[in-house]
Amino acid sequence: MALVLLLSGLVVTVPGADAAFAAPTVVAFLPLSGPVGTSVTITGNGFTGATAVTFNGTSASFTVDNDLQITATVPAGATDGPIAVTAAGSTDASLLDFNVTPSPPTVLAFLPLSGPIGTSVTITGTGFTGATAVTFNGTPATFTVNLSTQITATVPLGATDGPIAVTTPGGTDASPLNFDVTASPVPLVLAFLPLRGPVGTSVTITGTGFTGATAVTFNGTPATFTVNLSTQITATVPLGATDGPIAVTTPGGTDASTLDFDVTDATATETHEREVTLALRRHLVASGRVTAQGGFDACEAGATVKVQRRRPGGKWRTVGTDTSNAKGVFRERVKDRPGVYRAIAVRKELNGGNEVCREGHSPRVKHRHERAAG
After folding, report:
1. Do 100 and 82 contact (CB within 8 A), yes or no?
2. Are the CB atoms for 295 and 357 separated by under 8 Å?
3. What is the mean pLDDT of residues 133-138?
4. Please, what is the end-to-end C-alpha distance for the chain in angstroms?
5. What gap in Å lies between CA 180 and CA 94, rounded to an integer?
6. Do 73 and 66 form a contact (C-beta atoms < 8 A)?
7. Which domains are assigned to the chain?
8. Overall pTM > 0.85
9. Which residues contact 199 (CB under 8 A, 6 or more apart)?
10. What is the pLDDT of residue 269?
11. Which helix (H) or strand (E) holds 95?
C-alpha cells in the first residue's frame, strides 16, 4: 500500500510509506521481574514479523502470538534493563526495566541418607551459589558451598528426621526425601598423648564415637577442641585445668579416660632420665634401645642416638647416628673396626623446654675385628 497525497491539485504517490505504520511499539510486559527461564508476555503493536527480542541487550527466544502480543523467555546472562522488540527494521524498547531476580535453588539428592549428629552430608542440586542457609527439618546447620551444584553440611545438634532445605537469595527448596537422623554412639576415650603438659599444650585424644562431640574437659574444665576424625580429637589444655581425666561428650553420652592427664607448671622444668643399651654384631651393626624413666614415650621415640668409638688418645668419635623408632629401638651400621664403643641418646627438650629428656649413655662395649675366613 502507498500513501496518496493531494497537493495543489496534484496527486503524489509515496512508495513504501506504509512501512512507517509497521514499526513496533512496546507498551507493557508481565511479570515485571523473574529469574532466568521466566515466561514474559509483552504487549504493544506492530509485532508481526518480529525478528528479535532482547532483555537489556541479551537475545531471547520468543513467539509472536499476534500483532499485539509476544511471549518471550528470560535468557541466560540477562541483566536488569528494558525489553526491546525489533520488527520491520525498527526497534522499540520498554519504558520500564525488567528486573532479573536470582534463580531459586533445586535440591536433587544428598548422601549419606542417614547418620548421627555431626555427620557430614553432601547435597547436590542447582543454584546453590550465595546460599544463606541449610536446614535439617528446620534446624539450621553449618555448611560450605563447594560449587553452584554442591554443598557440604553437618547434621546439627537437635536435628530430627525430615527434608534438607537450601535457601539462597532466589528462594528455598527442600529435598524430596527425608534425612534419617540416627542415634549417636556413646563415645569411648582410649588414650591421649602427651600424658602431661602445661596449660596450652595440644593433646591428641584417640577413641571411638567422637563425631558431633560437643565438649572436651580436663578434670571438668572445658577445653577448646577440634574433631579430626570419628576416632581422634585434638584439644588444648585449658586455663584452670588440674590433674585428672580427660572427658569427651557427644550427643550419645560422655566418657572419660582411665588415666589422668598431669597438668605441669609452665615455669617448672621436668626432667626424664634415660637408659641406653648397646649390642654390636659382626661387620658391624650397632643396635639397642632407649628407655625413659616412668615410660615417658616422648623421650624414647624419635631420640637422636650417636654411636661412638673411643680413639687411642681416649677421646670419643661419633661413627654413626640414628633415630629411634616408636619403641625406642635404634640400629646403625658403622665401619668395622676393633675398639671400645658406646651409644648416647642426645638431650632434647619438649613443650617449649618444660620437659627435658636427659642425655643417656650405654655401657661400653668392646669389639674385636674378625676377619672373614679365607
Report:
1. no
2. no
3. 97
4. 124
5. 51
6. no
7. 17-100 (2.60.40.10), 106-181 (2.60.40.10), 188-263 (2.60.40.10), 270-367 (2.60.40.10)
8. no
9. 237, 238, 239, 240, 241, 263, 266
10. 76
11. strand 90-100
